[in-house]
Write a structure and sequence with these properties.
About 15% of the residues lie in helices and about 40% in strands. By secondary structure, it is an alpha+beta fold. The protein has one domain: outer membrane lipoprotein receptor (LolB), chain A. The termini are far apart. About 35% of the residues are buried.
Length: about 290
């Protein structure tokens, strides 16, 4: 992107047949409002959404250039509204580890939400998530969610975040405005198991017309885990008429490591998004 002073010179010069300057940035409060309304609409319209995840992880120890350990997981995942500041819970139920079925795996997540989200279903899904998290390489964690950045753009959480426009960009083939955000309010939305605050900062690529988030980046530094970066690319799902997670890239730990440090790189790809209750109704006969 051109620096602002260069853009000003372009706008002051005589018109050219070809211009890459583009339209001026919408007001920040307008971008915030459109993105907030879009995220709130996702929460209301999608209800419980389930899909498939293919997840590969690489673990590095010390100054190793090649990974010391690799792991491949396939899982059922569920994206469930919570009605609280977290907005959504993202549950993962691992089906296979390095191609081998998980023998103790119970009911599918999809079966927990035949009529939407309930406290009992969410409690059981959380147990499944915590059990599935043991298959992650490196430190135990449950923040590896492609929907995590969206909650900071939700209207109920925007007051706790500072935003600023960071320029134009083309993302996923769409003209977007980049909006940076940083969480200021305490206690933070994400905390360690010991209750320590984990403030986040991030970036959203917002399509200005609809307010859709087509990509996101989340950064945090949890104590004991090191720097964390989670990049997510969304893709327009024609069936659900929404931009849904397509790919998530993660990094946990320092790139410049001492002999005692560890680092995890991960890539997740998503497919077959569908509304849970619709699918269940399709396969269960109605008396």
């Amino acid at each position: 992107m051109r620096p602002l002073w260069a853009l000003a010179l372009l706008l002051a010069s005589p018109p050219s047949p070809v211009s890459s300057a583009g339209p001026p940035a919408p007001p920040l409060d307008e971008l915030e409002d459109r993105a907030g309304r879009y995220v709130a609409a996702l929460e209301e319209q999608l209800a419980v959404v389930v899909g498939n995840e293919e997840y590969s992880q690489s673990h590095f120890l010390g100054r190793e250039i090649s990974a010391s350990h690799r792991r491949s997981l396939t899982s059922d995942v569920a994206w469930v509204p919570t009605g609280d500041p977290m907005v959504w819970a993202f549950y993962r139920d691992v089906r296979t580890v390095d191609g081998q079925p998980v023998s103790e795996r119970g009911a599918r997540l999809e079966a927990l939400f035949p009529s939407g989200s309930t406290p009992a279903a969410r409690e059981l899904a959380q147990q499944i998530l915590e059990e599935s998290s043991r298959y992650n390489l490196g430190a135990r964690r449950t923040v590896n969610s492609p929907t995590l950045a969206l909650m900071f753009l939700h209207p109920r959480n925007q007051p706790r975040v500072r935003f600023r426009v960071a320029g134009r960009d083309v993302k996923e083939g769409v003209d977007t405005w980049k909006v940076r955000f940083a969480e200021l309010q305490r206690p933070t939305l994400i905390r360690t198991t010991r209750g320590e605050d984990v403030p986040v900062r991030g970036l959203g690529w917002i399509e200005p017309g609809r307010g859709a988030i087509v990509a996101s980046r989340l950064e945090m530094s949890p104590p004991g885990l090191g720097p964390v970066t989670i990049d997510v690319a969304f893709r327009l799902d024609a069936r659900l008429d929404s931009w849904l997670p397509a790919e998530m890239r993660e990094s946990y730990g320092n790139r410049i490591r001492t002999s005692a440090d560890e680092r995890v790189e991960a890539l997740a790809r998503y497919s077959s998004w569908r509304r849970a209750q619709v699918e269940v109704q399709d396969i269960v006969p109605v008396p």
